[in-house]
Specification:
By secondary structure, this protein is an all-alpha fold. It is built from 13 helices and no strands.
Length: 267
């Protein structure tokens, strides 16, 4: 028989002493603390996002479409929280950022493992990004590259509901059929939640670019070492500034066939 340990206090349950001891600044610059907290908070939201996307995938594979849609709505809310973090960053002037920015080299957001895991989990897998990590982190991302994606789970849902999904053309036809149905059945709602999640994430990417432009203009990003590693791995057109690299990500979507199908929806 197992017993459940009860939390002795709010602080003990949330591990607040350990959590609040994780903000170590490198300089005396006033704005460095908020910069650290915003990025640490973003990583916590990414952790929850990965959990919810894994739960979405599992629910779809089990045929629990209502539950999958529920998890996806939560993920969309998490993305809004990530976007809200940019507003905190933008209370900092470029001059304020310059007081500590040079001390960040070569640390860069391009090295966020969890962000890349979200991409891999949703089907946007680019093995060249593996070059940014070694050891445990590389193994973790490589594992993501091998496991079923959220998109794989949606294909399984289509198949389980009687649709032919042998190639992309059949998948698009299946989605068109779903989108042209009157009313909102569970499958139609799920398809809409998937594309809404995709849209929200694209908005996050765009908002990220705007924030970086506001902070550093066309300066090189602090992740030039990482950018060079990607270039060596075959990721061309990286550009010379932090914004250049981020702009290469703006046209990415997780579920392109969901977007393509909308072109052909008719009454």
């Amino acid at each position: 028989m197992t017993t459940t340990k009860l939390a002795s206090s709010y602080g003990e349950y949330l591990k607040l002493p350990q959590l609040l001891d994780c903000q170590t600044t490198l300089t005396q610059a006033h704005d460095e603390l908020q910069f650290i907290i915003v990025h640490q908070t973003a990583e916590l939201w990414f952790k929850l996002m990965l959990f919810e996307l894994e739960s979405t995938r599992a629910a779809m594979l089990e045929g629990k479409l209502t539950q999958a849609s529920h998890y996806l709505r939560r993920v969309q809310t998490l993305i809004k929280q990530l976007i809200a973090g940019f507003e905190v960053i933008e209370t900092m002037r470029p001059y304020d950022f310059a007081q500590f920015r040079d001390f960040l080299n070569p640390a860069s957001g391009v090295q966020s493992l969890q962000y890349r895991e979200v991409e891999f989990l949703c089907g946007a897998r680019d093995a060249r990004y593996l070059s940014l990590w070694q050891g445990y982190a590389r193994e973790r991302l490589a594992k993501r590259a091998e496991e079923p994606t959220v998109w794989d789970a949606f294909i399984a849902v289509l198949r389980a509901n009687g649709h032919d999904v042998g190639d992309e053309k059949q998948v698009v036809a299946a989605v068109i059929d779903i989108l042209q149905r009157e009313g909102n059945d569970d499958l139609g709602i799920l398809a809409e939640q998937l594309i809404e999640f995709d849209e929200h994430f694209a908005l996050w990417r765009n908002r990220h670019v705007q924030m970086v432009m506001r902070m550093i203009g066309a300066k090189p990003g602090t992740g030039q070492v990482s950018v060079a590693q990607l270039a060596e791995a075959g990721y061309s057109h990286m550009g010379t500034s932090g914004v250049d690299y981020l702009r290469t990500t703006l046209n990415r979507v997780f579920f392109p066939l969901l977007w393509e199908a909308r072109t052909f929806v008719q009454r």
